[in-house]
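Following up on my earlier message about zinc ion. Here are the inputs again, as you asked, copied directly from the submission form:
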Amino acid sequence: MECPFCKAEMIKGYLQCGTALWSTKKHKVSIFPGKNEQYAFRVKLPMVSGNYIESDCCPKCKRLIIDTSAYENNLE
Ligand SMILES: [Zn+2]
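Thanks, got it. Here's what our run produced:
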């Protein structure tokens, strides 16, 4: 995949994490989104191991691109 910012070839890999939430508000403690809060990406901690989110990393400008379409969200 070509980086849309700098056009370098991106490296395919995995974002390894526990719980994660991308939303329109900051959360200091919990990752439970509020009623009027939009969120695009939410993963809970699995029972056995962490999450492995397939993603692309740009070696030049260091940006990550994650296709979040397969994950829990409340966007339309
Ligand atoms: Zn780039």
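One observation from looking it over: The first strand starts at residue 11 and ends at 17. Hope that helps, and feel free to reply on this thread.
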